[in-house]
From TrEMBL, chains A, B:
Protein name per Swiss-Prot or TrEMBL: Pyridoxal-phosphate-dependent aminotransferase family protein
GO MF: transaminase activity
Stated family: Belongs to the class-V pyridoxal-phosphate-dependent aminotransferase family.
Pfam families: Aminotran_5 (PF00266)
Amino acid sequence: MLSDQQMLRIPGPTPIPPSVQRAMSQPMIGHRDRDTKELLRKIKPKLKPIFGTVQNVEILAGSGTAGLEAAVINTVQPGDEVLVIVTGAFGERFVQICNAYNIITHQIHVSWGDAVTPEKVESYLQSHPSIKAVMATFCETSTGVLNPIQQLAKVIHQSSEALYIVDGVSSIGAIEANMDAWGIDILVTGSQKAFMLPPGLTFIAASSRAWEKIEANDQSRYYFDLRKYHHSSLLDSTPFTPSLTLLYGLEQVIKLLDQEGLANVFGRHDLMMKMMRAAFHNLGIPLLTSEKAASPTVTAIKPNTFQADELRKVLKDTFGLVTAGGQGELKGKIIRIGHMGYCSPTDILQVISSIEIGLKMIGMDITLGKGTQAAQKIFLRSGKH
Amino acid sequence: MLSDQQMLRIPGPTPIPPSVQRAMSQPMIGHRDRDTKELLRKIKPKLKPIFGTVQNVEILAGSGTAGLEAAVINTVQPGDEVLVIVTGAFGERFVQICNAYNIITHQIHVSWGDAVTPEKVESYLQSHPSIKAVMATFCETSTGVLNPIQQLAKVIHQSSEALYIVDGVSSIGAIEANMDAWGIDILVTGSQKAFMLPPGLTFIAASSRAWEKIEANDQSRYYFDLRKYHHSSLLDSTPFTPSLTLLYGLEQVIKLLDQEGLANVFGRHDLMMKMMRAAFHNLGIPLLTSEKAASPTVTAIKPNTFQADELRKVLKDTFGLVTAGGQGELKGKIIRIGHMGYCSPTDILQVISSIEIGLKMIGMDITLGKGTQAAQKIFLRSGKH
């Protein structure tokens, strides 16, 4: 195997584009200097269309979980009842955060690999009027499920006064989000997914009704206190030293997204999903999720004729192609392939054709090129050429 | 002025060494991969001598303030009484964090520019036996004061059962710290100071008696829950996605510190402080702190014959030399010059000789070279050549 080649195709962290890597190599600057203010002034307005909001998108130094925790503790208080929609490991993370703060969770659990239905949420909320917030995962990274976030918004607001908090960690920047139009109250993401950056930043936007709750909430918090970020934003600043290197990278990421155009970015992800799914379908390898529940950013297969982890090992050893296994109850049972951020249709062809060889190497009786061909056809039919 | 030249001489963020910059440009890896485990296995034991501890040093993604908050909320609970030693803006930050969590603060205030005396703390603790923790700032970045952390440890443990929590943000890695031998219970630092990295990581080590409190503490927390980091450490992992780019950089920083030798690193900072002080002394410009209270990482001058901010502006415009002004009550009254991390005696000569020109440019009647000469003499006398 060619040394020093690695194709990182896990659902985040994702590869960094060379120009972003170079942007992050700029010399350090003072975090209270004009340079930092200018950087923030350039970056922050550009985040709004990605979130689909007119609100400021606040930037915190921390992992995606830090953002989720900030979303929860700024809006909900100990003893409050919330509804968490659990469709996989990241739905469970919301539950864990709430548990840590003595927030009472109602939970709707859906089989891992399925999306929640709006009807289920609607009837639950109607019979539980005390619920103050609903937490949902846009793309459930652990399964490759895309939950119907827009439709959920509708039923949530029709049937309750609850705030709607959405984990957009492996979706925002790859999948269209219209936070304001749909009625999402808090939307969170991280830097290491569709934003094509290293981990270390988390982004949060809040609706005006969420800001009212945030301002009035007396839950103890300091570093995660969104009021501090909001206040600093008005001065083109941050309350605490920001991750300057990642801000440099973000400036370049925004240029790349602008050059491609957001609609094209979303279209590319949709196309990659379709190529992936057609390939596995044609190879006769079961997909974990239905077409309706599939995420444009991560595809999971659930093989019934070979060991998932055996194929993953061969792919890594032979090609340096790194995929992800299952989490929780799906450990050892699935393979997850990330296709978000710095990933294009030609990368999908590479992944699929390499997987075909891997399947042969572990003794599977498949026709080489059959999956690739299906993906190629999808590409040609898409007109994206 | 030569375009694209900037000399960042603020007390953090500090310049990044080229080899660290290159290390951070390595391609992204999976945060749950063997590569990340190996990286953590290489890095983490090397942090222990820098902190002077046999305990694990935990790494969180976040600003230094995130580390200070984690230190507080893992060990203290609402309603507990603590003593905060306030010698400047970062002592006040401890107070703000405690206030956010309804922790009752006793405060010893010292004039900005002075260090606290152990006697003051001793007598305070003797008359207030209910105090559960004492919080102190090793180097107070806002004034360039180095508090007597070792001596404080002694009086704190002799006169109370309180935990001793130390903000080491602009000292650890530049100044000797013997956490275990001195009796520090929690020691915190950040990446963007003596560690020569961009901001975005915070480091925390805890003594075994602090770990007992941490384990027993039921204060609500999730992302900042040090128990999670401790548990993951045992598996060479992290509970949440780490800032992988900064970990790559940290691996190289540790190589640089190893090559120089920690004792020499500390010696270099001490020498730079002496050169700075001798220069200003010889130029007749008042230093903010006494020799005894001076920090090896940042020097503040408090001019009485010219406007601090006027000189700062000339230095930036003429040489791209960036210094820091005063914070809080010292705003506009002082100039702070950082000399930590990627900074050497020759850089100090550059700073001083440039400042001499700046002084002339703002109309001061000084003898050019007088400060530089004093610094040169200190260097030659030190035998570090």
